[in-house]
Amino acid sequence: MGAIVVVLLLALVLAAAVIVYVAYPYRGEETPVHPAVGQAMRRGVHSLPTLGSEQRSLEHERETHR
Fold first, then answer.
1. In the chain, how many domains are there?
2. Are 37 and 31 in contact (CB under 8 A)?
3. pLDDT at 15 exceeding the cut of 90
């Protein structure tokens, strides 16, 4: 029972972090209460590997031609 509660709480915290990121730093705005949180989120996202727009368009073309 306790493990289920802990997992659910972790899921809620993760969901809240995603919502805060999409609501503020993703759009280029500062988080209203604590701007350091938004800066930390940006640093974390910039350090992750992502596909560029050219790579995304190539992947999309490959999927549509199958």
1. 1
2. yes
3. yes
Q: What is the pTM of this model?
A: 0.54
Structure tokens at 60: 């999309």
24-45 in b/e form (b: 16+ CB < 10 A) is bbeeeeebeeeeebbeebeeee
Nearest Cα to Cα of residue 20 among 8, 33, 9? 33
**Sign of the CA dihedral 47, 53, 58, 62?**
positive
Q: Comparing 12 with 34, which gets the higher pLDDT? A: 12
Domain span at 11: 2-64
Give residue 51's identity as a one-letter amino acid code: L
